[in-house]
Specification:
The chain is an alpha+beta fold. Helix content is about 40%, strand content about 25%. The protein has 2 domains: about 1-30; about 30-170, Chalcone isomerase (3-Layer(bba) Sandwich). A 6-stranded antiparallel sheet has the order 1-2-3-4-5-6, covered by helices on one side. Helix 2 packs across helix 3 and helix 2 (about 80-95) packs across helix 4.
Length: about 180
């Protein structure tokens, strides 16, 4: 009986250590577009009960700090055209106070860097302090935007006044 007890004890300890080590290696995972970054949080965006995309927020050391790069990555659950993505982005930015006068200029810029997506495609945007943002489709760079547009673009998900506060909380790792 002692042999069985010792075996079970050793097995349980080894299993617990394996789970802990897996947790450590997972938390140390990095994103290819932002080396050294760790995931802060993730959330699913749904509309009328249908999944639209899975969002992930990444930053160095897993902490979002002012004047530091971070990455927002959206993996789509359905096919959506570029014009719909651009229009939805502009609508959300306008709700947050973006200058209406710049909307046609910003539309043209966003239409150059945002692409049609199909189920499983990923669009990512990396904030670069003092410069703006770099955009990627399937980890391939599609272009950049200036600082002002970048701040309004990221505000869609990260501003306290976002239309999706629960999604924001989850991305920031603040969800209960």
């Amino acid at each position: 009986m002692d042999t069985v007890h010792n075996f079970l004890t050793r097995w349980l300890l080894a299993s617990a250590m394996a789970v802990c080590m897996a947790g450590i290696s997972l938390s140390a995972a990095s994103h290819p577009l932002l080396p050294g970054a760790q995931q802060i949080g993730q959330a699913e965006f749904t509309r009328f009960g249908f999944s639209i995309y899975q969002a992930e927020l990444w930053a160095p050391d897993g902490r979002l700090l002012p004047d530091q790069s971070f990455l927002l990555s959206l993996t789509y659950a359905r096919n959506i055209g570029r014009s719909q993505i651009v229009q939805a982005s502009l609508d959300e930015m306008q709700k947050l106070g973006a200058p209406v006068a710049l909307q046609s200029q910003w539309r043209a810029e966003l239409e150059q860097i945002l692409l049609d997506v199909r189920k499983g495609d990923t669009l990512s945007a990396k904030y670069v302090p003092g410069q703006g943002a770099e955009f990627y489709f399937q980890n391939e760079r599609t272009g950049t935007i200036n600082e002002e547009l970048a701040r309004y673009f990221f505000a869609i998900w990260l501003d306290e006044r976002t239309s999706e506060p629960a999604l924001r909380q989850s991305l920031l790792g603040l969800a209960p």
